[in-house]
Design goal:
Number of domains: 3
CATH topology of the largest domain: Receptor-associated Protein
Strand order of the largest sheet: 2-1-3
CATH superfamily of the largest domain: Type II secretion system (T2SS), domain F
Largest sheet: 3 strands, antiparallel
Helix content: over 70%
Structural class: mainly alpha
Strand content: 5-15%
Distance between the termini: 79 Å
CATH class of the largest domain: Mainly Alpha
Number of strands: 3
């Protein structure tokens, strides 16, 4: 049920807003836990409704929002604002209703005596295992404000790197999808009308025109079944990708694609080096840092490799020694990590590696974009030319023979 309230804070500030609760008593308890003195509380007569529930289902906390939240928390902690008050304040400022509710629940848990890391761990949709462990390390070291700055910087770098890779593929994907839609419309709506003219003319039809007419006839007659087959295949592939075996197979296929695979490899290596550097700098143990990194690397093949590396390190092996047993880890990375171990500057080496692979990803993306556009123009031009030639050449022959 939805209630609107008017309340006064402990500082004497007037507050108005709405709260979603099972009943009025629960709403009162929730507001009192926030430190509000309730002036009035009225039921709006709405229970959220089906539409509201559907909207909630599609709400999510974006990486950008978590970055901004982390910076705000670090600033408040620097100003010696308590965790409870910081989360209460930020909950009222969030535009995302889901994040606002999450922060209120975190504040309620803190007020109930729960540690901040434990309170955050109850909301995995907003705060990852990596995030929670970083906060836990900050609690243990007493440097929570610095930890949140580390988190904001790391998430910012991670978001920028991933976003650039994805955005580079948006334009080509849109153009290719548009091309296939236009070709499908031509083959199912335009070509069938011209095919009767070509077949009734009695002229010899070129082989490529026969191929186009055959494709057009197939799509016209069995197009719906073809779409169902494609949709079914995509669904089965999606289900297969959800299994451990399927996820591993697709992860390895992704890494085997010429050029694209190399781009993804550099992306994962940059993510691994950056994660390890950030966590080791915050005082998290090596084995735990590797295990957490395996959960956020984003590739099943590398996840399993990292888990094996964690087992080797746990058994007493040096990190560089554990890395060199896996071909997914380049020789340069292994050698750099070994140098870091020998000099006691592993954190700086990992930071350097993360920056190096980030530059490599940036350069690879720029090169890929530069290659895709001319290749795409040539391929699309050939496709359109073949389609037009298959229709226009026979029509020209017919008109020339009249």
């Amino acid at each position: 049920m939805l209630f609107t309230y008017k309340a006064i804070t402990r500082d004497g500030e007037e507050k108005e807003g709405s709260i979603d609760a099972v009943n009025k008593d629960v709403a009162i308890s929730s507001l009192q836990r926030r430190g509000f003195i309730i002036v009035s509380l009225e039921e709006t007569g709405e229970e959220g409704g089906l539409f509201s529930k559907e909207l909630t289902m599609f709400q999510k906390v974006s990486n950008k929002e978590v970055v901004m939240l982390s910076r705000q928390i670090a600033t408040l902690f620097d100003a010696h604002v308590s965790a409870l008050r910081a989360f209460r304040m930020l909950a009222t400022e969030m535009e995302n209703p889901l994040l606002s509710r999450t922060l209120v629940e975190v504040a309620d848990d803190i007020q109930g005596g729960m540690a901040l890391s434990k309170a955050l761990s109850k909301h995995p949709d907003a705060f990852s295992d990596f995030y929670v462990n970083m906060v836990k390390a900050g609690e243990e070291s007493g440097n929570l404000n610095q930890t949140f700055l580390y988190l904001a910087d790391y998430l910012d770098r991670s978001y920028e790197l991933t976003a650039k890779t994805k955005n580079a593929l948006v334009y080509p994907s849109f153009v290719i999808a548009t091309f296939f839609v236009v070709m499908a419309l031509m083959l199912t709506m335009v070509i069938p009308k011209l095919s009767s003219v070509l077949t009734e003319s009695g002229q010899e039809i070129p082989a490529y025109t026969k191929a186009v007419l055959a494709i057009s006839s197939f799509l016209t007659s069995y197009g719906i079944f073809f779409l169902i087959l494609v949709a079914g295949g995509a669904f089965m592939l999606w289900r297969y990708a959800k299994t451990e075996q399927g996820s591993l197979a697709l992860a390895r296929i992704r890494l085997e694609i010429p050029y694209i695979g190399n781009l993804y490899m550099k992306l994962y290596l940059s993510r691994i080096a950056d994660n390890l550097n950030t966590m080791l700098s915050s005082g998290i143990a090596m084995v735990r840092a590797i295990e957490i990194t395996s959960t956020v690397v984003g590739n099943e093949d590398y996840r399993q490799v990292l888990l094996k590396i964690a087992d080797d390190v746990k058994a007493g092996s040096a990190l560089s020694g554990a890395l060199e047993h896996h071909p997914q880890m380049p020789t340069i990375l292994v050698q750099m990590v070994r140098v870091g171990e020998e000099t006691g500057e592993l954190g700086e080496i990992l930071k350097t590696l993360a920056a190096f692979y980030k530059r490599e990803v940036d350069n690879a993306v720029d090169t890929l974009v530069g290659l895709i556009e001319p290749i795409m123009i040539v391929v699309l031009g050939l496709g359109v030319s073949i389609l037009l030639a298959s229709v226009l050449v026979p029509i020209y022959n017919i008109t020339a023979g009249i």
